[in-house]
Amino acid sequence: xxxxxxxxxxxxxxxxxxxxxxxxxxxxxxxxxxxxxxxxxxxxxxxxxxxxxxxxxxxxxxxxxxxxxxxxxxxxxxxxxxxxxxxxxxxxxxxxxxxxxxxxxxxxxxxxxxxxxxxxxxxxxxxxxxxxxxxxxxxxxxxxxxxxxxxxxxxxxxxxxxxxxxxxxxxxxxxxxxxxxxxxxxxxxxxxxxxxxxxxxxxxxxxxxxxxxxxxxxxxxxxxxxxxxxxxxxxxxxxxxxxxxxxxxxxxxxxxxxxxxxxxxxxxxxxxxxxxxxxxxxxxxxxxxxxxxxxxxxxxxxxxxxxxxxxxxxxxxxxxxxxxxxxxxxxxxxxxxxxxxxxxxxxxxxxxxxxxxxxxxxxxxxxxxxxxxxxxxxxxxxxxxxxxxxxxxxxxxxxxxxxxxxxxxxxxxxxxxxxxxxxxxxxxx
Length: 429
Hints:
Blueprint lengths: L2 H40 L31 E11 L6 E8 L13 E10 L4 E10 L9 E6 L14 H9 L5 E8 L12 E6 L3 H13 L6 E7 L8 H10 L3 E7 L14 E2 L4 H7 L6 E5 L2 H14 L6 E4 L22 E4 L4 E4 L7 H7 L17 E6 L2 E3 L11 E3 L3 E3 L3 E3 L2
Parallel strand pairs: 7-8, 7-11, 8-9, 9-10, 11-12, 13-19
Antiparallel strand pairs: 1-2, 1-6, 2-5, 3-4, 3-6, 13-14, 15-17, 15-19, 16-18
């Protein structure tokens, strides 16, 4: 047997061993993902009243067992603390405790609180009721909730548009010891705790707040799931809770932090203050994430949402693994919305309690906008179908939704902010 022939035999044996090894790895990984898919299909998210997870309280030695049910309507809370969270003091955290001292029900990390604020109008010297929603920014606790509110400034170059009414009121007038009216936690954007997949949290600007709630909850519960956080801000002066996030990254081997500065200051040091120069993009995700299946949670400004969410699907991420929260009405159009049914006849909208019957204007975006334009006093909050504040009883007629409601709608009611009339309509308003 020649030396060359022997070498060929040895090479063939080595190649055969490599092929067998590759096949074994393939089938093991395939079995693993089939198991993950099976677990995901069997897992159903629990309701707020049936949450089984136990959350640790920083201030207590005993674990927090969630209360049985949330409350109805608005409940009085006292502001225990105010904490500025960024160098510019444009974001302030409010720690809220119930006035009655009773334990708080758990919420699903990522949900929000709805506030009814009594704000004085300096021009008319009258007080008006304003409803707004703010994401919870911490893990569930037995004795307090936390929200972190960014002061909404007037848009650059548009001085005729006022600064945020509610956020300015909270920053300028709400002090420790003041009382606020709060509706129970709600919202369908929340952590799917029963599913076993690794998690990617993406927060842009103040969109970091629900991600903080999810992150704190996961790590305090001692999860073994891999967690990535991509946090996009302008620079170090805009970032909130910097030390807290770094401490979590140092303490938990399964937490991977990517802070992204789109316009870093000279004093911001890459690799120390932030991990990536630029915005959170699909290119960054593809460069830093392993090739495997994840749950993605996304919350941020409109440009980021409109690029990332469709981009993830184009990358091959299943739409069922993408969860997102949009701030403001129609801030993200992910899928084609159902179009309202066209009517050949004029439609009349009757507001029974206000005693007004008005011809519907087909150019109006929603019944809420129509009511406000005609001086009908209707409570509202998010203007995006999430909080349920504008839910109104329909006495007769039907409505079309311009998008799927996020809030739970009672039978015989509609959400004015995302609906239009499909025929003559009578509302209890």
